[in-house]
Amino acid sequence: MSKFLRQIGFEIKNILMSKFILIAGILVLLISVAAPVIGALSKTGRQDNYYPEPVPYYDSAAYGYGVKMPIDIYPGGSGPITVDGIVIGEMNPFYWNLSTLLQSKKAIEQGNTVFTHPESANIALDLLDAQIAFFMHYVKAGITDYNDYRIQLQWEGGNKLIDKFIYEHSGTDPAVLFEAVQQGGFPLDQDGFNKKYIDITSEQRLFALEAADEYLAKFYDAVDNGNFPAYIDLAIEQQRGFIKNNEDQIAMLQKNIIDNPEQEQYLNEQIESLKKQNESIEKNQIPMLMYRLEKNIVPGLRIWQNTAIADIEEAQNWLIYNVIYTEEQFNEPQNQSLKQQYGSYARYLAEMNAQKNEYVNNELIARKCLDTEKPDMKYVPDGARSQAVQFLSYSVFVALFGVLLGGWIIASEFQSGTIRLLLIRPKTRSKILMAKFFAALIICLLIYAAGCCVNLIANGIFFGFPDYSYPNFTVNGDVSFFASYAPAFLACSVTVIFAFSAAFMLSVLTKNIAVSIIIPVVCFIGCTIVMTYLAFSRLMEWIAYTPIPYVSLYSFYLPHSTSASYNYVPVFELMKRGMPLSAEYGIMILLVLSAACAVVSILAFRKKDITN
Amino acid sequence: MELLKLENLVKIIRRKKILDGISLTVNSGEIVGFLGPNGAGKTTTIKMIMGLFTITSGRITVCGYDVATDFENAMRNVGGIIENPDLYKRMTGRQNLEYYASMYDNIRKSSIDEVVNLVKMSQRINDKVKSYSLGMRQRIGVAQALLHTPRLLVLDEPTNGLDPIGIKELRDLLKYLSKNAGVGVFISSHLLSEMELICDRIYIIDNGRMIGEKTINQTEDNGIYRYTFNTDDDEKTLEYFKSLDANCGRENGGITLVMKRERIPEIINALVSKGIGIYAVNQAQRTLEQDFISMTTGTKGQIR
Question: Is B89 within 8 Å of A416 when comparing Cβ atoms?
Answer without folding.
Answer: yes
